[in-house]
Amino acid sequence: MQKLVFGLVLYLAAISAWAQNSISGKVVDAKSNVPLVGASLWAETAGRGTVTDENGLFELGRLSEGSLRIRVSYLGYETEVITVVVPQSGDLEIKLEPKDILTEEFIVSATRASGSTPTTFSIVDKSEIAKRNLGQDIPILLNFTPSVVSYSDAGAGVGYTGLRIRGTDQTRINATVNGIPLNDAESHGVFWVNMPDFASSVENVQIQRGVGTSTNGAATFGASLNFQTDTRRDDAYAELDNGFGSFNTWRHTVKAGTGLLNDRFAVDARLSKITSDGYVDRAFSDLSSWFVSGGYYGEKNMIKLIAFSGKEQTYQSWYGLPEDKLENDRTHNFYTYDNETDNYQQDHYQLIYTGKVGSNWKTNLALHYTYGRGYYEQYRENDRFSNYALPNVIIGDETITRTDIIRRRWLDNDFFGFVGSVNYVSTDGKLDMILGGGANRYDGAHFGEIIWARIAGNTNIRDRYYDNNAIKDDRNIYAKATYEVSPGLNLFGDLQVRGINYTFDGVNDDQRVVSGQENYTFFNPKFGFSYEKGNQTFYASYAVANREPTRSDFTDNPISEVPRPEKLNNIEAGVRAKAGNFSYNANFYYMDYRDQLILTGQINDVGAYIRENVASSYRAGIELDGAYRLSSAWTLGGNIAFSQNKIKEFTEYIDDYSVAEFQQEAITYTNTDIAFSPNVVGSAIIEFKPTKNLSLNWLSKYVGQQFLDNTANESRALDAFFTNDLRISYSATPRFFKGLEVNLLINNIFNELYEPNGYTFSYFVPGETSGRELVTENFYYPQAGTNFLLGLSLKF
């Protein structure tokens, strides 16, 4: 591996050093003279192109002498075609005129924070996503953003993946795509495995930490992820992305677009295929997806139709690794049945309208529909007939109560509705108001099938042993405004009312009849201010969020004892600045939870573990992030978060099998740590660019100790870990290509053995020397050691 990397670096450096004639210059806005970052230049007669850097600068090399036509384009500007003579004396300055065509940023602006919004956020743009995107899922690509801990069930970043932000899991992180809710309406989670290679169709993502601004869909109870999909390109294009890596990982992606036709229409499309054997035994992933968008772009109106779909099959590795196999058998998989797989497909359709009304008003409306369906298959050894509402089988004088069974558990759901907003900006620019909201319905069927039984008895293939349906209506309306009371000082207010109706009826998978209806109305106010002074923006805010229980909280708890909704009071204060080569953000947060729902070990009437409310808990911390450009070759960046995450008091229940009649023992804890909430999370990125075309990045990540439950017990914990990755990127503009890029990513270069996720449970058994003995079983999700991904991208 070392020889491969060293040889590749030398080879790329040698290529980048070779050049013939070249031209260089700068692309700027014709009116403001502001540099245009990412402007596209294409030498038509040479079949070669490039894009401008963060300062609007470009260099186009390996050119033959003579006359050369160059097409220069940038979103929102008129395309320019210039003729230059090579060799060129001096640098060029190319000025582009703004084009009065409605842009797409307003699609997501209603649910996003702006530079003057008093909340904590980060933005990851398309160029940064592209550097990291070699087929791994969204959580892995966001791993180096502040306060993020990501993980993968299969251990290699493909398949089932997840992330936590400030210690909060995905059920508490709101996600939207173009302002449209993405979270599952019942579990509140996001299943990234259903959206393979979605990053290839993302223009940018804004990560708001804390409650943030009002948005659509699930409550923001720790963070929000706001995705904007690809915006249109003025020029026609095609791209091929192919890659391979460790664990037989392959990625194939093709993208194409028409560019702007007749100055009004554009169509873009993507097709992707990703496969991997996974780090864990048998934990393969077979993923495919597509993305299509078509739009009409007028001067005052834009209509866009977007459709995307993902289909996955993964071999289950949900069980995790028992602690006794952690040292010598890290790839062990509990499952051995050859079709122990998860199979799911999800199709998304979005129809979006954006328009200007006069000089002060903008409108946005989106209709959406998502169709999801699929199942996971399980082999169950020696399972009880009673678990499937089946009678015992009598053969002769023998009564058989158990048998081997293969079952499938299905989800078949529809999610549809609309979201919209109206934006008013006063003529003097001091007042910016948004009125928005949406109404959505989820209709989901849950059912289980028996597809095989060793002793079938009175059964038929695909007999349903449970079947229930749920309907959830989610409505919200919000009004937010920013007002400049004096130069640099902005006041912010945001009021949201959210209403929920949830109905469920049928037989649960544990054979209990579950029927109920719950209604909630939440008021979520947010207030704050920001003050801009020079290159710095100071801000502070107070925000409230309320969250309803998840599906399992309703179905697992006795219907008469439904948990209370949760409430979060969030204070954010900080400063963000950018001056020359240095940018930084520093903030403090305090998140005060009321009635937070956690697992305590308490069981229901059929032995299933339930979540219970704890009266008071909190998260408090400091987050720092920044970047400094030392020179044209060296850039340093990083972030670090220090936090305390505490539950003031809760009671743990431990199963006791040491007595004749089963019981649970209660143990009360005070001022204990919240599970999966490390006190320190940090990352650092060092970039070295020896030439314009070659970039070497060293990426480090540190995550402190995490407890597997809320007892702060050292024997139920994940060790702290420190990983280091190396990324080498090379770009060129060979003849007849607009661009060629090679990316090599070597993950975990020092072969750190670490586990960012797991679970635990404890119970009492009869003891040999005493009345009873406590047994604790820990399970882990180990991540891969040193591994690599190599990608080649061709742009036409």
UniProtKB/TrEMBL annotation:
Subcellular localization(s) per the UniProt record: Cell outer membrane
Span of domain TonB-dependent receptor plug: 116-222
Signal peptide: 1-19
Domain of life the protein comes from: Bacteria
Matching PROSITE patterns: TONB_DEPENDENT_REC_3
Domain TonB-dependent receptor-like beta-barrel, first and last residues per copy: 327-749
Alphabetized UniProt keyword annotations: Cell outer membrane, Ion transport, Iron, Iron transport, Membrane, Signal, TonB box, Transmembrane, Transmembrane beta strand, Transport
GO cellular component: cell outer membrane
Membrane topology (UniProt): Multi-pass membrane protein
Main localization (coarse): membrane
Cited PANTHER family: FERRICHROME IRON RECEPTOR-RELATED, FERRICHROME OUTER MEMBRANE TRANSPORTER_PHAGE RECEPTOR
Family in the record: Belongs to the TonB-dependent receptor family.
Protein's name according to its UniProt entry: Iron complex outermembrane recepter protein
